[in-house]
From TrEMBL:
GO biological process, one term: DNA repair
Gene designation per UniProt: LOC107224601
Protein name: ADP-ribosylhydrolase ARH3
Biological classification of the source: Eukaryota, Metazoa, Ecdysozoa, Arthropoda, Hexapoda
Coiled-coil ranges (or none): none
EC number: 3.2.1.143
Sequence similarity: Belongs to the ADP-ribosylglycohydrolase family.
Length: 351
C-alpha cells in the first residue's frame, strides 16, 4: 500500500483502541470460564445480537484492568509527547488506586503497592522481584500495548523498544515482555495494510515469525528449554490457519495455542482469532469480521476479556472504526474517551 489516506489512518487508530475496549467489555462476563459448549456459544451469539439490536437499553458494560491500563498508557504518551517510564508507572498506580476493583491480576497489585511505597525512586525494582525474581509472565504487558503500536507505528525499532520498556514497569519475565512486543508488531502490521484488499494470512504470520526471530534471542544466556517459544507458537498458528475446510476444532486451537492468562498462551491466540475471522466461521452468525473476531475470541473461553481485547485491537487497526457497530459500542463504558485518546495519538504520531 502506498502512502495511506489520512482519514483511513485516523479511522484505524480509532478502530484499534475501540476494538480493544469492545473486546474487554464484552469478554469480561466470561473471564475464567472453560472453552464453551455449543449451547453456551449460542448464548454468546444471542447476547451479541441483542447488544447490536437497535432498541436494547441494557446498562453500560464496565471495562476492566485491560482498558484501565490501555487508557493509562495512552494518556501518558499524550501528556509526555512520548514515552517516560516513571510518568507511565505513576499513571498505572494512580489509575489502580482510583479504581482498584477493575479485576487486576493478583500479582501486579503488589508492584503498584511497592511503587507507591518507594515513591517511584526505583521504578523497575518491584517488577523484577515478582514471583521470586522470575518476573511476571502474565499478559498484562501485552493487553495494554496498543497505544504504543499506534504512537510509534512509523518507527519499528522505537516501537519494539518502547513496548519492552513499558512492560518492564510490571512484567520482566522474557515471555511476558516478548508477548507485548509481538502484540505491538501485530497491531502495526494491521495498521499498515489496506482493508479493501484480501489479507494474506500466511504472509501476515510469516512476517511475525521473521520479526520474532530478531526478538527471541537468548541474550542473557538463560539456557531456555525453547529459546524461541513465540516462533514455535506462531508456526503452530500457521498450520492451524492453513487447515482445510472449516478449519480446526476449537478444542485443538485451545490445546495448541492456549487461552490462559500467560502472554505465551494468549497473544498468539488473539492473532489467530483475527486471522481466522477473515472468513466466515460456521458457529458465528455475523457478516461483520470485526465482531466475528471478538465473538470468536470470547467463545474460546479462558482469559476472554484479554484475548477479546487484544484480538479487537488488531482487528480494529486493520478494518478501522467503520467496522465497529455503534449499537454495540454504546454498551461499552467510556467509548467517547477512547475515541478522543485515539485522535490525540493520531495527531501526535502523524505531526
Ligand atoms: N486478574 C484477572 N482475572 C482474575 C479474575 C478477575 C475477576 N473477574 C474479578 O473481577 O475479580 N484478569 C486480569 O489479569 C490478567 C493480566 O494479568 P497481569 O497484569 O499480567 O498480572 P500478573 O499478576 O502479573 O499475572 C497474572 C497471573 O499470572 C500468573 N503468573 C504470572 N507470572 C507468573 C510466574 N512467573 N509464575 C507463576 N505464575 C505466574 C499469576 O497467577 C498471576 O496472578 C488479564 O487476564 C486481566 O484481564
Ligand atoms: Mg481484565
Ligand atoms: Mg483477562
Amino acid at each position: 500500500m502506498g502512502k495511506m489516506d489520512s482519514l483511513l489512518l485516523k479511522s484505524k487508530f480509532r478502530g484499534s483502541l475501540l476494538g480493544a475496549l469492545m473486546g474487554d467489555c464484552l469478554g469480561s462476563a466470561y473471564e475464567g470460564d472453560e472453552l464453551f459448549s455449543a449451547g453456551m456459544k449460542l448464548v454468546i451469539q444471542k447476547s451479541f445480537d441483542k447488544l447490536q439490536g437497535p432498541h436494547f437499553k441494557a446498562p453500560v458494560i464496565q471495562f476492566t484492568d485491560d482498558s484501565a491500563m490501555t487508557r493509562a498508557v495512552a494518556e501518558s504518551l499524550i501528556e509526555c509527547t512520548g514515552f517516560d517510564q516513571t510518568h507511565m508507572a505513576k499513571k498505572f498506580v494512580k489509575s489502580y488506586y482510583l479504581e482498584p476493583n477493575r479485576g487486576y491480576g493478583a500479582g501486579v497489585t503488589t508492584v503498584f503497592h511497592k511503587l507507591r511505597n518507594n515513591k517511584f525512586v526505583d521504578v523497575l525494582g518491584p517488577a523484577r522481584e515478582q514471583f521470586n525474581g522470575e518476573g511476571s509472565l502474565g499478559n498484562g504487558g501485552a493487553m495494554r500495548v496498543a497505544p504504543i503500536a499506534l504512537f510509534y507505528y512509523k518507527n519499528s525499532e522505537l516501537m519494539v523498544d518502547t513496548a519492552r520498556k513499558q512492560s518492564h514497569i510490571t512484567h520482566t519475565h522474557k515471555t511476558g515482555v516478548d508477548g507485548a512486543i509481538l502484540q505491538a508488531i501485530a497491531i502495526q502490521q494491521s495498521l499498515l495494510l489496506d482493508p479493501k484488499e484480501e489479507l494474506d494470512t500466511c504472509k501476515f504470520t510469516d512476517n511475525l515469525i521473521n520479526e520474532m526471530d530478531k526478538i527471541e534471542i537468548d541474550e542473557e544466556g538463560l539456557g531456555l528449554v525453547d529459546p524461541s517459544p513465540y516462533k514455535t507458537q506462531l508456526k503452530l498458528l500457521r498450520n492451524l490457519i492453513c487447515e482445510d475446510g472449516d478449519g480446526p476444532h476449537d478444542e485443538k486451537v485451545v490445546h495448541q495455542l492456549g487461552n490462559d492468562v500467560s502472554a505465551l498462551h494468549s497473544v498468539p491466540t488473539a492473532i489467530y482469532c483475527f486471522l481466522k475471522a477473515q472468513k466466515p466461521i460456521p458457529a458465528i452468525q455475523t457478516e461483520n469480521p470485526l465482531r466475528r473476531t471478538v465473538q470468536y475470541a470470547i467463545s474460546l473461553g479462558g482469559d476472554t476479556d484479554t484475548i477479546g481485547s487484544m484480538a479487537g485491537a488488531i482487528a480494529g487497526a486493520f478494518y478501522g472504526e467503520e467496522m465497529i457497530r455503534p449499537e454495540i459500542l454504546k454498551h461499552c463504558e467510556t467509548s467517547d474517551k477512547f475515541r478522543e485518546l485515539a485522535d490525540q495519538l493520531f495527531h501526535l504520531a502523524t505531526a
